[in-house]
Design goal:
Layout lengths: L7 H6 E3 L5 E4 L12 H6 L3 E3 L2 H10 L5
Antiparallel strand pairs: 1-2, 2-3
Length: about 70
């Protein structure tokens, strides 16, 4: 059997916290910032923690932690 490999794109997009939660960049900040409210642009800075259900999907399907 070949080795199972981690999904390379997922390794670059998501990080795991020490408690096992998944952190990701906020969506909707690639283009069209002029028409977005200032509050949305401010809240979308940096990384955000995904919900527990989304984190389970990411870790189960893409990030294979030994």
């Amino acid at each position: 059997m070949p080795k199972l490999k981690n999904h390379s794109g997922t390794k670059k997009r998501f990080k795991l916290t020490a408690s096992g939660l998944v952190r990701a960049q906020a969506a909707g900040k690639r283009h069209g910032m002029r028409k977005r409210p200032q509050k949305m642009k401010r809240n979308a800075r940096g990384m955000m923690t995904l919900s527990k259900q989304d984190g389970i999907i990411i870790t189960k399907n893409f990030i294979r932690v030994p």
